[in-house]
Amino acid sequence: xxxxxxxxxxxxxxxxxxxxxxxxxxxxxxxxxxxxxxxxxxxxxxxxxxxxxxxxxxxxxxxxxxxxxxxxxxxxxxxxxxxxxxxxxxxxxxxxxxxxxxxxxxxxxxxxxxxxxxxxxxxxxxxxxxxxxxxxxxxxxxxxxxxxxxxxxxxxxxxxxxxxxxxxxxxxxxxxxxxxxxxxxxxxxxxxxxxxxxxxxxxxxxxxxxxxxxxxxxxxxxxxxxxxxxxxxxxxxxxxxxxxxxxxxxxxxxxxxxxxxxxxxxxxxxxxxxxxxxxxxxxxxxxxxxxxxxxxxxxxxxxxxxxxxxxxxxxxxxxxxxxxxxxxxxxxxxxxxxxxxxxxxxxxxxxxxxxxxxxxxxxxxxxxxxxx
Length: 372
Hints:
Structural class: alpha+beta
Number of domains: 2
CATH topology of the largest domain: Aminopeptidase
Strand content: 25-35%
CATH architecture of the largest domain: 3-Layer(aba) Sandwich
Number of helices: 13
Number of strands: 13
CATH class of the largest domain: Alpha Beta
């Protein structure tokens, strides 16, 4: 077996293709678009303005059998006062090849003077975090990934231990709320002068996407996974999600001229992604857009409120504004809440009002490097 750096276009294609071979018979696996994985190799990605990454593949008998990406996020390390490396895109056909690529990633990190390997964590919010360790029977909505049970076991056998877990779950009646909550929301809007900014088109939403980034950088500062998102990075996140967005379901909470909260919701396009099998052409784009128009499921990707307003009903104002607006879209019958970190008890309390049933757990692992 040989572990090689991924450099040529052929290398990238084979790196990207591996999970399509490993998991194609698994009904719970929702294949991402190949182009969304390949974007990590594009040196014009805004992540590379400040940071660096490498990618490795293990070959056996000329076939790729494992892969991993590893990166040093200098923004994260500067803000958090750490010297961590992150790995992501881990896939392996067997324990031996999985260990080989992770040890290679660890070596890359140590040569850069980093002292801990943590992951899976991608470049930016929206890249998905963790290895699935519970809820294997459920399909994983975008941007989550389905992983076989042995992945978590292998990572532990390689000396990695739990850093934290991210929870996801199903809200069966996401837009039905008790009258008392609407009263709280209306009182908060009246007392603090909130208004709700809604959107009609993706073009209009794109013009406002930096406002969501600004709120994120204030609202998530105490979260385990936080690092500030720069404007170019927020546009990169938007490039992935806006093509399938229904802008009418995304809103900003305004206080005067200032954006102070957001709720980012997408139609679930899992069925379309399965039919597309990772490719937009020739008809993958049609399957995905058709799924977005017909699905009865939405994905709650993010809710944020700036700290100044987190304790005065702003969250309820956002929830209830979405609930009222959803009356115009009766086909949405359920929602997936995507990746709430287990230590984020405020979010868990807030979302409890919607009747959440947690059914998936993705785990982020870590291992010290200095003594190895």
